[in-house]
User: Fold this.
Amino acid sequence: MSAENKPLSLLERMKQKAKEQKNYGGEFTGEEAKVNVRACPNCGAGRAKQDGLTHCAYCGFEFLSVQLTDGINLKKEDNSQNT
Amino acid sequence: MFGLFSNQATNNEATAAIKEMEETRERFFAFIEKLEQKMKEFAEASLPELTELNNTDTDEYKRAYHRMKAAVLGQLDSIQKKALEVKEEKITNFRFTTNDHALSTAYYDFRNDCYDRYNQLDELKNHYRGQVEATYSENYEAKYQQILDEYEAIRNKFACVQCGSPIVIEKIYFTTTYITCPACQTRNTFEPSSKAKTLEQLGRSLAEQRTAHLLKEHDAIPAKTQELYLERHKIQLSLIQEKNNRVIREKTSRIEELGKLHEELERKRPALYQTYLRAMFDEWNKINPALTEEHEKFYNRLLSDYRKYKL
Amino acid sequence: MSNPLLEPIHGVSLYDYAAVSAKMANGVDVKEICKKLGIEHAVFEEASALWVARMQEDSSFAVTMAFGEYFGQAENHPKLKDLQAQVGDEGKANLDKMRDDRYFYEELNGARQAAYEYGYDGAQWIQENYGISLGDFQTVAMKWMEVQNQEMAGGQTGNIHHFIDYQQKKQAEYAKRFAEEQGGNVADDVEF
Assistant:
């Protein structure tokens, strides 16, 4: 058995290869929690609770082009009434 | 023994074939032993390396560790493949010309011996595969604790983007959601951290880890019933020769007793599974209550699958 | 179509969800995806979590199977088909070849398996050497899986075996190559 074929040195090389490789999709970067507000791009109005989430209460702009069903925190009541 | 063959030429041929079988067997055994030696050395050396990498890999998914583990398993497979190729070539395809009954019998003995020896290597590989897999560990409790700590740190940290009034994050959200500002009623979009977003899957892994002892209890039953069965079988066999009536009575009653124990274990098995499953889902629900309703549907499905397929 | 488990969640259909999964595996930004579907993160994340829950609930595997089929059709999704991750010319050519040429697909499949056995991340290896992303690879794999299922149903097992053999042959070739690169296998010096 040649010196470089001993199990340990093969293992060393395997370990090095495992460590040095680039991870698929790059490194994982954790994101912090954050808060934002989406205002209507047409009229600048924010979304208030009673107006629902899908359409702007003032100009009718469509924030969401789907009909919300009963999900985890989002519920049917969150669909805007002015559609 | 070879005087049995019909003529001298066949006899010589058979003798030569037998001799070749013996030599091949000897060489095959030595070959497998050397491979086993290699496998042991390599696997034993790799286990502490893998454990260390599992503990030190800082990547979120421990990808370096997983690559290394796959490579170690690949080497174990390569050893087995090497044995398999030689087995096919030298044993399965062993050629002998005389179509004689005695020689065929000798060949089957030779082949079975070699196959058994190969199977030992296969078992050794499975043993080490299990050991290699067991180097993986994940501290789910610690990961969960990080999510809890992070929640405590941020729950009162945010203000409404519209009016600046404080908004409180009232529970751990694992999906992005809308939080209404109590002052101006604006819907703020709250996006949880990457860590918090893992809560649902992490919750299942942690719940499984916390209740693993209950599953183990359930999984241990087949081995226990097998043991009872063997004991009963042994007594039954010993009864065949038994003449003493007192001993026969004692043994018969022991057989009945063992039968009852066996039945009882079989009866307990589904209940143990349900106990495990209930405890596991209770833990999961505690960790991520937002999906309790969905978890319960999953629980019912697993339970009915268990009953339907007698898992 | 009366299976309630296949009904859309927040208007996100199973086809939407499967196509989104394929696009995300390709590295397409989730923001772009949401924009095309006309939804926000909150909607998408709830729908994702609930689609996973539906699969868990479904003992018939109808949801999981339909998901697989839709995943393979991500390229035809009316709203998402134009969303492409950045792929080089070489990657595009290889991807087309993989779609049309089953031998080439089986070769890459074998190579990918061999790569894992020699400590490479197979997905990364395919990306680096052929410019094909994981999502595209899986989408094409799903397509060939369908072809194979049809062959199975049509009793063409000979053809299936032919390609399995070919894949194994290629896997062995790549394994040999990777073994040489790492300076041999651990038991190379053991001879019969």
